[in-house]
Design a protein that fits this description.
This protein is of the alpha/beta class. It is built from 15 helices and 14 strands.
Length: about 450
């Protein structure tokens, strides 16, 4: 199963070879439903670019709204998507289009086929809008799967939904192919991961909360698949090889090595990397989530393929050595380990990893603020638009929201945020906060010169 999964991921990346990495100045708008709206995959993708390409500033924008079907995406396309001025647009839909409790109706199959056909018809309108914008690069995403097989509980099991979602993803892939637009497949690789892991643990799922929404590890798997489809696997943070006996630089990939000196007991040199290690989060983020981003390392080879900062020092005498960076001990290794090579990206104590942690935390602050704006967008497009109150945001609207909250738990849960977000001045201030955070990220993610010393631990 593991070999099959790797082959499928490789095949999916090959099919999406037309998708190029983002370029400096790109504004990437991720369009979707609640999985995009409240999810992390886009912020994890941006974090990779923040750390791996510090000189290639891009902007990633969330344009997901919880509960949306493709028809609702079409309704807000101009006001909520194109208004963000994308140079690149990713589109994913289908989870809500394939229904939930409708599958228990006596006429479920026929009614759902009609529902899905309406989705296809609405998609055709969106497709026409996309064709009229050749200035925007399009990337279609086959979204994350609905997991009906995990046995963590017996809830939210909708007969027929998996087959319908599979058909929608196939439709999306063909639509992308027809238009020569890249297609990135989350659906099949994530389903294979679920099936593989469930052979050992029947309760495993990348969507452990409700079978629908990926947890943080699931979103990291999505980011991994997306980056792999961009052809970015195998690009190291840095690769260093120093021969301690001769003081020669054998390799210096994506970095600069200078001033190599040493004695029989070790070696010292200047190290200026052109990238930072990817700082995996070890805290569960987001409402209802229990898993951590780092948990994804158990199911995909992200560290091997995307996070290699290898320090190799050959020619050392047998024995134990301390690794010092800028005079501070960050690890201890024997000569054999150093000769083989150690992955500094696994060492959270290095100064470049500590630098990357700051970027991760600032990016999380930015994500938190952006979530407030997306909650506001949900209220506007999902509730107020249908009442003819889109962007009115006056006292009468607040009265309507208060009345609606009494009978709708989702509106009630969003009411507090809306009481603030309805004021343009506050939304503008939130946007300014995000701008400041992003500016700071691209200030502190710049490469710094460090001194590496390998010294005998005697």
């Amino acid at each position: 199963m593991k070999k099959l999964l790797l082959l499928f991921i490789a095949a999916s990346a090959l099919q999406a070879k037309a998708q190029q990495p983002f370029q400096k100045g790109d504004r990437i708008v991720f369009v979707g439903n609640s999985i995009t709206d409240g999810g992390h995959y886009h912020s994890y993708i941006w974090l990779y670019y923040m750390t791996r390409f510090p000189q290639r500033r891009i902007t990633c924008l969330n344009a997901g709204i919880g509960g949306d079907v493709i028809g609702q995406i079409n309704d807000r396309f101009e006001d909520d998507v194109l208004s963000k001025k994308p140079t690149v647009l990713t589109l994913t839909w289908g989870m809500n289009d394939t229904g939930y409790f409708e599958w228990y109706r006596s006429d479920a199959k026929d009614s759902m086929q009609k529902k899905i056909q309406r989705s296809y018809n609405n998609y055709a309108i969106v497709e026409d809008k996309l064709k009229k914008r050749p200035d925007i690069k399009k990337i279609f995403i086959g979204g994350s799967p609905y997991d009906e097989t995990a046995k963590f509980n017996d809830k939210n099991i909708y007969p027929g939904k998996t087959q319908a979602l599979n058909e929608v993803v196939a439709f999306q892939e063909q639509a992308a192919k027809k238009n020569s637009w890249p297609f990135v497949d989350f659906y099949h690789p994530m389903m294979l991961i679920n099936q593989r892991e469930q052979q050992q643990d029947s309760t495993f799922s990348l969507t452990p909360g409700d079978r629908i929404h990926p947890d943080n590890d699931g979103h990291m798997v999505m980011a991994y698949l997306f980056l792999k489809a961009q052809g970015l696997a195998g690009q190291p943070v840095a690769m260093i090889h120093i021969d301690a006996a001769t003081k020669q630089i054998k390799q210096a990939a994506n970095c600069k090595i200078s001033a190599v000196t040493g004695t029989a007991d070790g070696v010292s040199f200047g190290y200026l990397a052109q990238a930072l290690p990817y700082p995996l989060d070890t805290i569960s983020r987001g409402w209802g989530n229990r898993r951590k981003q780092s948990d994804a390392m158990k199911v995909v080879p992200f560290m091997k393929e995307f996070n290699q900062e290898v320090l190799q020092v050959s020619g050392l005498k047998a024995g134990q050595y301390d690794l010092l960076m800028d005079g501070e001990k960050v690890g201890s290794y024997d000569a054999g380990q150093l000769a083989t090579g150690i992955n500094l990206a696994e060492n959270t104590r290095t100064p470049e990893y500590q630098q990357a942690i700051q970027i991760r935390e600032l990016n999380e602050e930015r994500w938190d603020i952006e979530r407030r704006l997306r909650m506001y967008a949900w209220m506007e497009f999902s509730i107020l638009r249908g009442k003819g109150l889109l962007f009115k945001d006056n006292n009468a609207v607040m009265d309507s929201v208060n009345a609606y909250a009494a009978k709708d738990i989702f509106v009630n849960g969003n009411r507090d945020n809306f009481t603030r977000a309805r004021y343009k001045g506050i939304r503008d201030a939130w946007q300014l906060e995000m701008n400041v955070l992003t500016d700071k990220i691209y200030e502190i993610n710049q490469p710094l010169l460090h001194k590496i010393t390998i010294a005998s631990a005697r």
